[in-house]
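for the recovery benchmark. tokens below, seq after
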């Protein structure tokens, strides 16, 4: 059987097939294949691999954008030495995702303000997105407002269902959501809807005993905690605030600089303090 091929149509055909990488690279690769005598299968395989690789990079960038992760807060920039209770190996195992996201397992990170909870959560989110999972990072107060608006519009169930597309919801700073400032029962409904189906990660600077200030009544608080901890890993990050450490380090550096420049002034400053 004779097949008539019009190579002039190739760009149009590749566009129709949604193969932009092949469409961009095929002229150079075909020229190289002709010059080096590649078999047709090798040329096809090379172009297919490049298409898949760039498609994966586009997916990652698209999902990183929708995840709304804080820029720069990755596991590469997290100083595990300052939070010895966390354990780098433990976090990197969680970053694989497959052992817990599929079963709706939760992560709960506790520690004082400035302990690095948000950084660790964001870093974990970055790694999970790169491994093919979908993540949403949000302040708890923001998600409460979003769900409140949905309830007022009589579509709370639909809004919670839309959040199901995310394998992991990271609810940052839960302790700042206050029942006297918002209708936080919507947060309980979100937790209940995702129970044993989809994962939640929560960061909080208050232990469970302080969560009565978040939910409308004690019974709802107990029920929310029960659902979260039933299948959960708890991360304790009880260390000194990194912001305080940074401020002290900066103050020490300034003091040392002043001492080097003007020992008399430095001595007088130290006497005053």
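predicted aa per position
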């Amino acid at each position: 059987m004779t097949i008539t091929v019009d190579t002039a149509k190739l760009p149009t055909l590749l566009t129709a097939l949604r193969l932009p990488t092949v469409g961009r690279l095929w002229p150079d690769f075909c020229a190289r294949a002709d010059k080096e005598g590649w078999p047709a299968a090798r040329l096809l395989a090379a172009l297919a691999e490049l298409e898949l690789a760039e498609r994966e990079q586009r997916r990652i960038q698209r999902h990183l954008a929708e995840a709304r992760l804080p820029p720069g807060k990755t596991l590469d920039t997290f100083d595990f030495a300052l939070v010895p209770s966390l354990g780098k190996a433990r976090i990197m195992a969680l970053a694989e995702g497959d052992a817990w996201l599929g079963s709706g397992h939760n992560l709960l990170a506790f520690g004082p303000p400035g302990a690095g909870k948000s950084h660790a959560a964001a870093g974990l989110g970055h790694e999970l997105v790169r491994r093919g999972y979908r993540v949403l990072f949000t302040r708890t107060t923001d998600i409460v407002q979003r769900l409140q608006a949905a309830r007022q519009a009589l579509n709370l169930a639909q809004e919670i269902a839309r959040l199901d597309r995310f394998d992991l919801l990271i609810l940052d700073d839960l302790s700042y959501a206050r029942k006297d400032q918002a209708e936080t029962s919507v947060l309980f409904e979100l937790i209940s809807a995702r129970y044993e189906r989809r994962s939640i990660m929560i960061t909080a600077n208050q232990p469970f005993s302080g969560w009565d200030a978040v939910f409308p009544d004690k019974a709802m608080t107990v029920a929310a905690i029960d659902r979260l901890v039933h299948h959960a890993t708890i991360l304790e990050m009880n260390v000194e605030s990194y912001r305080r450490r940074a401020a002290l380090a900066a103050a020490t550096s300034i003091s040392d600089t002043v001492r080097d420049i003007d020992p008399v002034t430095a001595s007088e400053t130290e006497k005053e303090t």
